[in-house]
Amino acid sequence: MSARQQFWRDLLVLFGLAGWALALPAHASEFGLSMALTCMMYVALSSSWGFFCGTSRYLSLATSAFFGIGAYCTAVMLGELSWAGAILLGCGLAALVAVVMGLAVLHLRGTYFAVLTFGMAELIRHAISYFEKTVSGTVGRVLATVPEMSVIYHTVLLLAVISVGLSILLRRTRFGLALLGIGGDEQRAQTLGVNTRLIKVAGFAFTAAIAGGVGAAMAVRWTYIDPHTAFNPFIGFQTVLIALIGGAMTIWGPLIAAIVFSLLAETLRLQAPQVYMMTLGTLLILCVLYLPGGLASLRWQTFRLWWLDAKGWCKARRYEWSGDKARDKKKAREGRIVGI
User: Are 289 and 327 in contact (CB under 8 A)?
Assistant: First the structure.
């Protein structure tokens, strides 16, 4: 399949999934609609995170900060602005913070970048907590104006479609190829004329804008917003885990993993939260060890190779445990002694 055919195939799959999601509210229960909303939230977050961090190999832990900024935009400004205005404000303010943060820390890589982005997310959370306590005289905000569930659902669906659709489009542009070059060898990309600083900041801002918009839309799901809820680090960590397990370098890996783990979370979190976290951690370890490309890299050939490896391991263990290995070693040692 050519690159052009793959492009149109990806767009058709996206439109098909979006159409199915549009029809869901007419048939699903309130609980099913809530689960679908959570799925779409993580689809948008993990797809946008994977587009920048998966291609550039920069491990960002600031998703919760951008999500919280968007949530607070809705909590503070929804009474003054329209619903669309609050969403756009969340996107824009999160992108602006990402530009400032990116200019400060995107010259670092690896562990240093991950730790600094997490530290800046915590700094923003504590700064807003301090402002709320000292200036506003409160700990959080009560959301008095809340739109209907259908408005929230279609807004998050639109953000998820935009996130996946832009990932499909931008990966095939010079911008996406520049991010891939940065992930492969940043110094070589610079020698080829790529403005790596500008590309990294723009990619980081794109991720932040989607996270800010999702946070602004999902904020109304809570009747009371405080910094601990809005800037919950678990949202950022789960986004990273979903993208890595699904395959951060791929388009559909984060989407599939987001749906699977959102359903798994809703099923296990209330009844057995420890089991859910253990499952998430176990899958991450297995993917790192045996499937570095994520679940999206699974092919029939992968299962065949695993089957051959398992057969070889069983054969080797049977040869050892039956005593044949020890006897063969003994015969070989006796043969060397006779030869001497």
Answer: no
